[in-house]
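Long-time lurker. I teach an intro course on protein structure, and each term I like to show students one example going from raw sequence to a predicted 3D structure in token notation. This year I'd like something fresh instead of my usual example. Would anyone be willing to generate the tokens for the chain below so I can use it in lecture? Attribution to the forum is fine with me.
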Amino acid sequence: MMELRVLDIRGMEEAARELRALGVHKGGIEIMAPKSVLRVIKVCGISSDALNIIKQEMLSAGGDCAVAWDAFVKRRKNTEGLIIGTAAQIGRLCVKLQKQPFGLASLGGMITSLEAGYAGRDFVLRAGKYKLNLGKRAHIMGVLNVTPDSFSDGGMYFDREYAVARAFKMQSQGADIIDIGGESTRPGARAIHAKEECRRVIPVVKELAKRIKVPISVDTTKSEVARMALDAGASMINDITGLNRDRKIAKFVKEHKAAVVLMHIKGTPMSMQKDPVYKDLIGEICCGLRKSVAAAKAAGIKDESIIVDPGIGFGKTVAHNLNILKNLREFKSLGYPVMAGPSRKSFIGRITGAQEDERQFGTAASVALSIQNGADIVRVHDVKQMKQVAQLTEAIING
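-- Reply from a regular --
Happy to contribute to a lecture. Here you go:
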């Protein structure tokens, strides 16, 4: 009896897996897998003349390019379009663009790099003496707030002895990175002086660096704190401003060959949740992250030590946060590992009605979807439980 079904092919690896199951020859898999994966690439800031060439080339290849109905009539110098086709068709487009005017040769190279970043998951992160194979599985970053006023666990680990014990417990539960924060970044939080932040953070870093077996990250926006933390044994800096507040952080990260997390935030913790508005949420976040990456690279930080984070909950409404989670994979096109931090965030409470200490299940759902949608690192409070979530999600994804 004949049967039909639609296959949900979400990437080249899944396409290759289905082709292998049929017994297709290796050479045939290399040819046909790119034909099985649809890509829609948005290009902005391009002329109508250039888009016309792209459209003709894509039509000849069996794809298309969507543009405004009057784009070619008005011959705009600055417009946008959607390139629509399989990965194979877009690959052929990039080859043909090498011989075209209007900057299209450069665009072809950009699309090739974009595709490689989006499709890839073979990241190996360098953080000081540590090397983390993020391509093997999603990694867990455990949150350790040594503050009296963080939104979820403020005051619980303010004492150094409790903080150190908590870090070792998270390590035993499966944390791959410990992220220490000495300043609350909850909505409405006021900044504290660098000296006070150092007083809270540095003794914990020094104590952990002697014995812990996983990288220590420090969540800070201040170069003075970053410098002292890295000197004390930290190997990663998590900057919620994406180097937009204090560029000297990049200098110290580079000198210590540490890693850096570049996060997107709209406003400051004091102002970020006062009616944040975006015309193009994902596009604007990507633009901001690209600028942060450019600043990091200008300071000498290598690609292998950069992580990007779209900043769930930082200058975003509930709808924005859900949109980010749904479209998280788009940030892979930046070409860097993606970190997601939905743990216990207020959007979970807004949807479920749960208080901060009751948001474990909402966090679990968000973490699972984050990993499914491409997150390489998830930043969480409940390491033991979220480790299980990550393991099962990875097992489902990888078959």
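Some talking points for your students: The chain has two domains: 37-119, 124-398. The radius of gyration is 23 Å.
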